[in-house]
Amino acid sequence: MADLGAEWVQLDEPSLVKDQSEADLELFTDLYKPILATKHGLKILAQTYFGDVRDSYDLLTSLDFDGLGLDFLEGAETLDLVKSKGFPADKTLFAGIINGKNIWKANYDKKLALIKQLPVADDKLVLSTSCSLLHVPYTLANEPQLDEKYKRYLAFAAEKLTELTDLETILTGNGDAILKANQALFAQPRYEENETITRQVASLKESDFHREPAFEERAAIQKKEFNLPELPTTTIGSFPQTREVRRNRSKFKKGEITKDQYDEFNREQIKACVEFQEKIGLDVLVHGEFERNDMVEYFGEQLEGFLFTSNAWVQSYGVRCVKPPIIWGDVARTHDMTVKESVYAQSLTDKPVKGMLTGPVTILNWSFPREDLSPKETTYQIALAIQAETLALEKNGIKIIQIDEPALRENLPLRKSDWYSRYLDWAIPAFRLVHSKVQPSTQVHTHMCYSEFGDILDAIDAMDADVISFEASRADLTLLDQLNRDHFKTHVGPGVYDIHSPRIPSEKEVAGTIEKILKKVPLNNVWINPDCGLKTRGETETTASLENVVAATKEVRQELAHEGR
């Protein structure tokens, strides 16, 4: 790097914002002392983000780093650390003051007030973003369809760089016009408050977050209501989105077909999906979700308070990108969102059809949230909207309702000591708020995936769902051992095969997986299902896999009957 002419080398160490033990800090010291002893004329920056370095600040300032990158937004104690302990005069502070994870324009008065508190000489201060800009879209220039009344409040990656130069210009005394324009923007209301919703949230009381009767009594009522066989079979919700399904949606969005034509195509898909599930013998059916593009975007498009972009893509993982909605204002439900499709599917069969909803925590975590309202209050607004949809499904004869929370863990604080106080203490009640008013005979399911859940099982059990399906098959069902140890009461569908691979599990393989599950979980508590939704899979592999799942389940039931279990 030195030979190539670099002046600075940045070494990312975000793990330092997590809880650090003495052993962790000793290891960090042992690793970095040799590196810092041989800098070859380079300046070394230790960059942190997503939190504060309360456990390692003294160590970082004592080691021979030339610069430290600190997060002044998510780092709850960063400013206090720098002010109370001071900052070494021989080091450069890279101050993360522009939000690298959200898309709102910065309030320059607030940023300037923060900067003025930093005990650092001007020539030792670098203004920066709180983290890399990987988490936000590239530029607002790619959004020509977005109305200026919205756009002026937003800052994507390119605009955030402009904000940094704006602040520099203001601090050097040449930015009066820039500052006044920013002040004028923040002096006016951004949106019209929905007073009905804000009053509803403010008036919530403890009883609104609890469902009666208790789980065990509900389980007995539901067993009688549904009379399902042992090891009831179902799917997670979505069925393959074929090229024809995607084309139908695209043509509708482009105005090439009417709403009636669009709906009729989806009805045909739902009918075929229900007929297939009945044919192979699944016990609890789904409508297939052919009308849905994305599990968050679909609901956001129908709720008040959301704003959508055309090209604001961000990386999810690998080459997969997503286009998160923006929570612009107060969230409210104004009409049925899923009732029509669920009721139609239920009309085609005597078997129960699950209503399918996305939970409030996932909707929050997979959107760009507001910064003028706490995550807790925003999530409660969403929860009330999803609660209304839940009750509408129930009123229209849907007796099993699944409220998915695949992103529950995604906003869990990096410090374990903050898990409950800063997140779970409101995230779990938000889920309970959604289903707290349904009848005891209505069975509430939820689904979780993409995460490790073993260390928050108590919180998951406290969601008080009747059934939960996990993505556990890829981890060889090790999660089930923890369920036993933690006396997990919720009935579970651990997933009997991995849908993320096109490989078709054999009937024998699925039967073996079911038998493994039954060694870890009581028979009466087990559901049989794939480990995730089938939206991204092909029709041929889905058909064969589900046929094998049902056949294997029937085989295991026969063996259990033979054994007298």
UniProtKB/TrEMBL annotation:
<comment type="pathway">
    <text>Amino-acid biosynthesis; L-methionine biosynthesis via de novo pathway; L-methionine from L-homocysteine (MetE route): step 1/1.</text>
</comment>
<dbReference type="Pfam" id="PF01717">
    <property type="entry name" value="Meth_synt_2"/>
</dbReference>
<keyword id="KW-0808">Transferase</keyword>
<dbReference type="InterPro" id="IPR013215">
    <property type="entry name" value="Cbl-indep_Met_Synth_N"/>
</dbReference>
<feature type="domain" description="Cobalamin-independent methionine synthase MetE N-terminal">
    <location>
        <begin position="2"/>
        <end position="118"/>
    </location>
</feature>
<keyword id="KW-0862">Zinc</keyword>
<dbReference type="Pfam" id="PF08267">
    <property type="entry name" value="Meth_synt_1"/>
</dbReference>
<comment type="similarity">
    <text>Belongs to the vitamin-B12 independent methionine synthase family.</text>
</comment>
<feature type="domain" description="Cobalamin-independent methionine synthase MetE C-terminal/archaeal">
    <location>
        <begin position="231"/>
        <end position="554"/>
    </location>
</feature>
<dbReference type="GO" id="GO:0009086">
    <property type="term" value="P:methionine biosynthetic process"/>
</dbReference>
<keyword id="KW-0489">Methyltransferase</keyword>
<dbReference type="InterPro" id="IPR002629">
    <property type="entry name" value="Met_Synth_C/arc"/>
</dbReference>
<dbReference type="GO" id="GO:0003871">
    <property type="term" value="F:5-methyltetrahydropteroyltriglutamate-homocysteine S-methyltransferase activity"/>
</dbReference>
<protein>
    <recommendedName>
        <fullName>5-methyltetrahydropteroyltriglutamate--homocysteine S-methyltransferase</fullName>
        <ecNumber>2.1.1.14</ecNumber>
    </recommendedName>
</protein>
<comment type="function">
    <text>Catalyzes the transfer of a methyl group from 5-methyltetrahydrofolate to homocysteine resulting in methionine formation.</text>
</comment>
<keyword id="KW-0479">Metal-binding</keyword>
<dbReference type="GO" id="GO:0032259">
    <property type="term" value="P:methylation"/>
</dbReference>
<dbReference type="GO" id="GO:0008270">
    <property type="term" value="F:zinc ion binding"/>
</dbReference>
<dbReference type="InterPro" id="IPR038071">
    <property type="entry name" value="UROD/MetE-like_sf"/>
</dbReference>
<keyword id="KW-0028">Amino-acid biosynthesis</keyword>
<keyword id="KW-0486">Methionine biosynthesis</keyword>
